[in-house]
Every structure is written in structure tokens, then in C-alpha cells.
User: Which sequence fits this backbone?
């Protein structure tokens, strides 16, 4: 993000009384509304704000519709001012950042034999996924990752420690 793009984004975020992250989260939601329709976007791509006030507002159908009605014109003005290509780049950068935040927040993981780490929201989900991966690997070993170790971390974004090694 260039300084000019940062300044423009911050200007619109301030007008919406949002952080830059929350403004871009709202913009990502608005983009989904454009592509999928409002109801589908709400059900499948609701904004995940970092602000507690915005989280509370977006928790109800009326609150989210009010946010959308009030701030959608700011998104359109922001796209116009920052430029379509830059808006697309900023949108994609935000989606990547949001995805990374989710990954970092997860405390449970699986390290695969190829070194890839799959993160899980819960320990139960990790156990279920390992079982599925082993069954799939037995059926299709040529195209499946194989779990090698169960991982955990004590704090979001922290270092992984090994819970258990798995045998192939």
C-alpha cells in the first residue's frame, strides 16, 4: 500500500468511524454483496470486525443492514478515489491479512510429511481431520498429504510444539 493509498483509505475509514482493517473488512463484505447478493453475503461472508462496537452492530440483521446502508456509499467513493486497480489490490491484501490472522489464532495443527502445516480451530477438529486424512491416504496415496505430527501452541501466533508423532 503506497502512502497515498494509505492516506485515502484512512480518510474513508475515519469517515466511517472504523479502523483501516475494519473499513477494508467492510469493503470485502460489500464486494461479496455485489457478487452474491446481500442475503447470501450475510449468511456466508459476514464481516469479522476487530472493533467490539462494530461486532455488536453486525451481530443483528438490523444492525448489519444499518451499517451497510450507512457506509456503502463510502466504499464506492473510496474505490473511485483510490482507483479500481488499487482498490482490487488493497482488497486482496486485506483478504490475505484476514486469512493469516485466522491461521495465527488457531492453537491446534497437523504437520504433514511434506512439511505443510494445517491449522484447526479445535482439538476435536484436528483429531477428526487426522482420521479423514489417514483414510484418504490409504485409498489414494499418490495424491494425498499424510499427517506426521499433531501440533499445538499455547498462544495465538506462538511457536508450534509437538503433541504426538504419528506413524504412517
Assistant:
Amino acid at each position: 500500500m503506497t502512502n497515498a493509498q494509505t492516506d485515502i483509505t484512512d480518510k474513508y475509514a475515519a469517515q466511517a468511524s472504523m479502523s483501516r482493517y475494519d473499513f477494508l473488512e467492510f469493503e470485502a463484505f460489500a464486494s461479496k454483496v455485489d457478487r452474491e447478493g446481500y442475503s447470501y453475503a450475510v449468511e456466508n461472508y459476514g464481516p469479522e470486525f476487530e472493533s467490539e462496537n462494530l461486532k455488536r452492530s453486525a451481530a443483528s440483521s438490523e444492525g448489519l443492514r444499518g451499517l451497510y446502508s450507512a457506509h456503502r456509499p463510502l466504499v464506492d467513493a473510496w474505490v473511485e478515489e483510490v482507483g479500481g486497480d488499487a482498490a482490487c489490490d488493497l482488497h486482496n491484501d486485506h483478504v490475505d491479512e484476514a486469512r493469516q490472522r485466522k491461521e495465527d489464532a488457531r492453537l491446534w495443527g497437523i504437520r504433514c510429511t511434506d512439511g505443510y502445516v494445517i491449522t484447526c480451530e479445535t482439538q476435536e477438529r484436528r483429531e477428526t481431520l487426522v482420521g479423514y486424512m489417514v483414510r484418504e491416504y490409504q485409498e489414494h496415496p499418490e495424491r494425498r498429504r499424510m499427517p506426521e505430527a499433531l501440533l499445538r501452541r499455547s498462544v495465538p501466533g506462538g511457536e508450534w510444539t509437538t503433541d504426538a508423532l504419528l506413524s504412517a
